[in-house]
Specification:
This protein is mainly beta and 192 residues long. It has 2 domains: 74 residues; 81 residues, no CATH class. The protein contains 3 helices and 12 strands. The strands form 2 sheets. A 7-stranded antiparallel sheet has the order 3-2-6-5-4-1-7. It has a 5-stranded antiparallel sheet with strand order 8-9-10-11-12. The chain starts with 6 loop residues before the first strand and ends in a 5-residue tail after the last strand.
């Protein structure tokens, strides 16, 4: 049905199986139990040899939940490019991920087009206006899955100048971001 690299997003909630390996039997035996797969879950097709005989169904494994196994019809799925799968993988909320995919004509397209050096506006929690920034990094981080963006924001506040470097994920619209971590450097005036 699909090769191991074909990626999908689940469009409707389904029941799959969580497969656990028995550590005491050197991983040779497995136990499976029913598990809920929610819309927004990212999945990858299993190898051809593991596909069901029914050509209307496909066998899949979770991308971010490797223990999840699911067999469903193609109507419950949408095929993803590797780039779109990586952009969506950075969004931890399955519902936000699903909404991002459903609005793919705008948001995913914007995520694909962003490159180092691009100027963007970013919403920061607790700040009323959107702040200008420059994207300096686009790629994966060792501690997080998916495509992340490193944005430099320069914000002037009376008596302070802040340089904030933040890693963000695309969120509700092309100019909003969800930040993973930040480093705050303060330069205090000599008079303080």
């Amino acid at each position: 049905m699909g090769d191991q690299r074909t990626k999908f997003i689940l469009l409707q909630d389904r029941v799959g199986q969580t497969v656990e390996r028995n550590v005491f039997s050197l991983g040779l035996s497995t136990k499976s139990s029913p598990s809920q797969a929610l819309r927004g879950d990212l999945l990858e097709a299993l190898p051809e040899a593991e596909q069901p005989q029914d050509s209307t169904k496909i066998a899949l494994v979770g991308i971010d939940r490797k223990s999840l196994r699911l067999e469903c019809t193609l109507e419950n799925l949408a095929r993803l490019s590797d780039e779109d799968a990586n952009l969506l993988l950075a969004i931890s909320s399955l519902e936000e991920r699903y909404q991002m995919f459903m609005d793919r004509s705008v948001r995913l397209d914007f995520g694909r087009k962003i490159l180092a050096g691009c100027q963007v506006y970013v919403s920061v929690k607790g700040v009323a206006k959107k702040l200008p920034g420059v994207v300096w990094y686009k790629g994966e981080l060792p501690s997080n899955s998916g495509t992340m963006f490193g944005v430099e924001l320069i914000v002037s506040i009376p008596s302070f100048s802040y340089l904030i470097i933040l890693y963000m994920k695309l969120m509700h619209s092309h100019d909003q971001a969800k930040f993973l971590s930040s480093i705050l450097k303060q330069d205090f005036p000599a008079s303080m």
